[in-house]
Amino acid sequence: MSDHLVIVGGGLAGFTTAQELRKHGSDVAITIVDPEGLPYDRPPLSKEYFDGSMPAEKLAFRPESWYSENAVELVSERVTRLLPGEGKLELGNGQVLSASNTVLSLGGRARTLPIPGGDLPGLLELRTIADADKLRETLKPGMRFAIIGAGLIGAEVASTAVKMGAEVSLIDPVPVPLVPACGAILAGRLHDMHEAHGVKVHCAMTQQIELVGEEYRITLADGTIVVADAVLVAVGLVPNTELAQDAGITVDNGVIVDDEQRSSIPTVFAAGDVARHRLADGTLGRRHEHWESAMHAGQTVAAALAGQPLPVHGAGWMWSDRYGIHLEAVGDMVNGTEVLRHVDGLPAAAFRLDDEGHMIGAATIDGGNTVRAARRIIDRGIIVDPEKLADSSIDLKKLAR
Questions:
Q1: Are both 149 and 218 inside the same structural domain?
Q2: What is the pLDDT of residues 196-215, one digit of tens each?
Q3: Per-residue DSSP letter, 85
Q4: The 3-state secondary structure of 289-347, one letter per residue
Q5: Residue 344: φ, ψ to 5°
Q6: What is the rounded CA–CA span in Å between residue 77 and residue 103?
Q7: CATH number of the domain bearing residue 21
Q8: Host domain of residue 361
Q9: From the DSSP assignment, how many helices (H) and strands (E) are in the chain?
């Protein structure tokens, strides 16, 4: 059998694998199998695409012509079975593909609420273009819109929905979400923006959802009942590991992979939200669900398949947008000591330092240049002066030299 790579899933990790292989000069036959067809970007679904300011064609990573020009076949089908021992995959239409190597970039599905009414028909989720289309069609100015989950997606949708004229209720049991991502102070400033923009915030566990006539009644643990015309459930994702598990591949809240993104079956790789690394000491790391980590995983798979040195990636980076501000964070915002930088009296950046003074993490609000400099400081292992970090008059780029 001639070499044939089959990529299952057209998200960022899968697309990046194909793109990087062609950049490496590989002429291996590549097929991307995804029922949604043309691979596209997900972050705009909660923002620009949701509010209609970005047309669907702008979501695509590349126009359709790129795939034919780069000899990448797109198959709009679902893989129903992996047979890695035979080097085959079965598709929903009965077709069988041969594969010398397979990449699973299946992402995840929206997590449901394990409560009475958590599976009611009509509850909204946001993972795909179709979900965003349904959300946009449902949302009308003046309607009562409840969002369960105030993480990145929930917060971004709340911001967009308010702008579109909805009356938004945001429900989460965590008093201040995103503390692990950007530190308590910046997370608090971000969370306070919801009420400042007219969102009604409820800090309580959701206990039950009922559909009474055409309205939803959400019962919270503190006794509050939130009434809504539409409900979005945004409480995280469940990795799509079923194909791998049925094929005998090791899974544990993700497909377990090594440094090359290789699973327990060497011809099967996994990348993106579905993958989980086994660390050097044998323990399992966290799954990473951010855009850049998916891209990096695809680059790693491509390098491994092309026989190239594995890329060295810097500190992990993420971003989010809400209410006209831009959040960025890099590295570890959980451990170490926090140093704050204020601009116009408001906390605008938070840095984390280890015991020796090395920066290990940074987060900023509307501070792209600052976070880029912070990333260089982290990656270079530079020891920084906390007083200079806190001084907003000092350009962080000077500390990165």
A1: yes
A2: 999 999 999 999 999 999 99
A3: T
A4: CCHHHHHHHHHHHHHHHHCCCCCCCCCCEEEEEECCEEEEEEECCCCCEEEEEEECCEE
A5: 55, 35
A6: 16
A7: 3.50.50.60
A8: 324-399
A9: 11, 24
